[in-house]
Amino acid sequence: MVFWSIAITITLVACAALYYAAAMRPVNAVGSGEGLDAQFARMLAGIEADVGAGKLAGPQAIAAKAELAREMLRQKSEAGQAPTRAKPLRIGVVAAGVMLIAGLACGLYAILGRPDLPGEPLASRPEIAARNMNLEEAIARIEARLAIAPDDLRGWTVIAPAYMELQRYADAERAFRRIVELAGPDADRETDLAEALMMQAGGDAAGEAMQLLRSAATRDPAHLRSRFYIAGELTRTGDYTAAVEAWQELIGLAEGNEPWLATARQGLAFAEAGGVAPQDDETQQEAIRGMVEGLAARLQSEGGSVEEWTQLVRAYLVLEDRQAAQAAYEDAVAAYPQAFDRGGLDTLALGAGLSLNGDGQ
């Protein structure tokens, strides 16, 4: 209530100032006194010049000066009358405009504003903490903050992928569960939680993880990540009939040039062959490299989400190409200059020892 009282008072003062400036200031209808004096002086000098040139005789000059003096007195008398003010119609329009602006400002803030939120120093923001210290210190700082503010969604969003990078999968599961509780379930959040459960189980997606993945795919039939995991799990468990169908559905979502398409086709061939690997490790490594390069080319030419940039940096790190990972990270920072947008990406780069300042060191 105190906030709204102050806000309304300030708004009224501002509106009054605008109204006075636009509608209530007097406007003189004639020039100023100084302008008349200057004009009179010029005309008087002209009469003197005519006298000196012999154009006017003495009596004529006196009469001209007298007439000039009378005209000057008349104009000054008119200038001294009440100044002209704005017409009533203009005042009404200005008043209506000022009130409309004030109403819109208060209405928008009532809908979008959050005066109940406390101030938050820059140094306490978790994404800033992650950029200014090593990964362990950043996590400790965020954990301390979350112990005080367990409903801080932003803090959980930053720390969850950090736990995954440190292979603290049980902590990651707890963080992702908290994110789902605070923000509600969606395809990405359920898949994130499923990933944490799978990593704890050594890649096994049975049980709750598979339920989460199926739920994610149901929520968003075009959700690629959950469908990848589902097809992969069906293939891993030997349910090749269902795996073939899952891989085909996934491939059906592609437009034809996606970097993940080669892997999906390999999975489909593997399932169709009843679990017989269609290529050796060296060929598979080349296929992975081709996928990564395809993703990099698309992001460079068309742009993409911050999650896709994170996937590209992680892929380069897996391929042990740190130079390419650093370059990809710097390109991602250029595409997403706001640190909050890159919470998971910055955490990944920090944990991998990449430079966060773009110096490549």
UniProtKB/TrEMBL annotation:
Q: Does the keyword GTP-binding apply?
A: no
Question: Record's Pfam families?
Answer: TPR_CcmH_CycH (PF23914)
InterPro entries assigned: C-type_cytochrome_biogenesis, Cyt_c_biogenesis_CcmI, TPR-like_helical_dom_sf, TPR_CcmH_CycH
- Localization in the cell: Cell envelope
Which residue ranges does the record assign to the Cytochrome c-type biogenesis protein H TPR domain?
144-257
Q: What's the gene?
A: cycH
Q: Does the keyword ATP-binding apply?
A: no
Q: Which domain of life is it from?
A: Bacteria
Keyword annotations from UniProtKB, A to Z: Cytochrome c-type biogenesis, Membrane, Repeat, TPR repeat, Transmembrane, Transmembrane helix
Principal subcellular localisation of the protein: other
Protein name (record): Cytochrome c-type biogenesis protein CycH
Q: Where are the transmembrane segments?
A: 6-23, 91-112
